[in-house]
Amino acid sequence: MNSYLELANSVIIDKENRLVSCDKSLRLIGTGRSAFVFKVTSTNKAMKVFFPNLAYISIEEAEIYQSLQGIHYFPSIYETGSNYIIMDYIEGYTLFECMTYGVVITADHIKEIDYALSLASAAGLNPSDIHLRNIFITSDGNIKLIDVARYRQMKKCRQWSNLKKAHRQFYRKRFFLKKVPASFLNILASLYKRGLIPNYRL
Ligand SMILES: Nc1ncnc2c1ncn2[C@@H]1O[C@H](COP(=O)(O)OP(=O)(O)OP(=O)(O)O)[C@@H](O)[C@H]1O
Ligand SMILES: [Mg+2]
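Above: the input record for the complex with magnesium ion. Below: its predicted structure, written as tokens.
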């Protein structure tokens, strides 16, 4: 197999941050606002490759993961380059996927996510950017959190307390459909980001 550095170098991203090509042993599994994430085939590792203009985040995020190593709610990391991080591949669904596939998110899951975040706070961090695509329920029912790049920011992040509130006020109610279209969730997210949902301040 090629080295991780060679694999990372095979990822070509254009000026509009579109993926142009990559080695055939990389399978795209996720796209965020700062990176493409691949599964390295025949391994249980994921490679997060940052967009060229945001490559500097790689070192910041890797340092934060370092301070979380040993907390099993976060993936272990194995190698960091100037624009990539190698970490555990997480088998499961993000909360966003759970909602679109109809996998039920229980009050116990919420408690466990709370606990995982409290461990990150106890490690001196300020968990931020906690949204539906950054939280996994694994195929064996455990919680994993990813995308920790903003955990050292000072600003208070209300996203998780808002998600907990929405879970309590709407999702847990019997009338709330447990399977919703991705387009509906994306519209909600966009209204939320623009501060247009009353009582759910950013
Ligand atoms: N270790 C992993 N195992 C499996 N899937 C992953 C892993 N890391 C990331 N993903 C998938 O890739 C997506 C994007 O990853 P990530 O959140 O790290 O990117 P980002 O650009 O920092 O995102 P954001 O837009 O939240 O800032 C995730 O939402 C998830 O679906
Ligand atoms: Mg993310």
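Notes for the reader.
DSSP finds six helices and ten strands in the chain.
Residues 107-122 form the longest helix (16 residues).
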